[in-house]
Amino acid sequence: GTIAPPTPEIEALRTRFPWDYFADELAIGLSALEDHMDVKFAAVAPFELGGVNTPAPIDAAVKHGVPCVDGDYSGRAVPEICQNTVCVKGFSMAPMALIDWFGDMTIVDKIINYEMGERISKALSEVAWGRVGNVAFPVQGRDFHRAIIPKTLTKSYNVGRVIRESRESGDNPAERVVESVGGWVIFRGEVVERTWENKIGYMWGETVIKGSGMKKGSRLKVWFKNENHVTWLDDKPWITSPDIIEIIDSKTGEPITNTDIKIGDEVSVIAMKAEPVFREPEGLEVLGPRHFGFDLDYRPVEDLV
Questions:
Q1: Using an 8 Å Cβ cutoff, are 100 and 123 in contact?
Q2: Which of 1, 148, 12, 14 is nearest to 70 (CA)?
Q3: What domains does the chain contain, in order, with CATH numbers?
Q4: What is each CA distance from 37 to 24, 69, 95, 113, 135, in whole angstroms?
Q5: Tag placement on the chain: N or C end, fewer CB within 10 Å?
Q6: DSSP structure class, residue 42
Q7: What is the pLDDT of residues 196-235, one digit of tens each?
Q8: Would the pLDDT of 15 be above 80?
Q9: CB-based contacts of 72, cutoff 8 Å, min separation 6
Q10: Measured in whole angstroms, how far is the alpha carbon of residue 63 from the centre of its chain?
């Protein structure tokens, strides 16, 4: 996948640095890592669902001439490299190849732990003004089934189809989505507050939504680190990661990222169950609320709605 999104200011760099390798970082990294390890990769798997980190591996697989697996390692979008099944199952992150959009490449042979791998990747992305491609976690075929969460690309495709069809038919997109994937519309309302900061390469902040309809008079606060991870309903802790908390446009069903959400948006908040592996102790260690610094125990979403 890629580490850190580009910003509009990056456009100014075009006059000083050629972007000859933009969008080709992962394909280049695959070839470089094959040469370094003296192997041939049989397939590519996305690290997570969402952003560029799903379509980019598909594109890289096509360019490299190998299949992209219908699955991923997280079953959702996550901010940190450690928050996936290959880490939970103890697979090595190294060797890994990091390539920026100018073609600069770093091969990392050994990494002491996942946290250091994250720090190295983030450091290089900041040096490269915001983005590097990361090819990592080379897994033997015989072990692949232990890590992959299957059929998640098909699931994502089907969610997109449901949103499109609901727009065309005039149905409520939020209700159609939860019918399709299994989940709950937990809140509806208007975004009334928004604060965030860029901290060590992540987007940290809070969004506050004033309730409407059945939730009129209530307020939902959502804390995010890139993605949404902890909620408070009327100041009481509520749904948290690892369960999925997604904010969408109430009218169109379009998911709204924390980069794009703004005060005045009319939104619906959807919650879905996490993959079972992340509800186990090892998964909660990397994706539960305590991992993010909150003195809260995880409670499954189905027990709260």
A1: no
A2: 148
A3: 2-150 (3.40.1610.10), 173-303 (2.40.390.10)
A4: 20, 21, 8, 20, 13
A5: C
A6: -
A7: 998 877 899 999 999 999 999 999 999 999 999 999 999 9
A8: no
A9: 45, 46, 47, 48, 49, 54, 148, 149, 152, 153
A10: 23
Q: pLDDT over 70 for what percent of the chain?
A: 93
Q: 246 is written with which tokens? A: 């997604």
For residue 103, name the pLDDT band (cuts at 50, 70, 90): confident
Three-state SS at 274: coil
CA 278/CA 288 separation, integer angstroms: 8
> If you ran DSSP here, which 8-state letter would residue 247 be given?
E
Token pair listed for 296: 């809260």
Q: Report pLDDT digits (tens) over 254-283.
A: 999 999 999 999 999 999 999 999 999 999
C-alpha triplet 5, 55, 175: angle, nearest 5°: 95
Query: Residue 101 corresponds to which amino acid?
Result: W
Query: Of 269 and 126, which is predicted with more confidence?
Result: 269
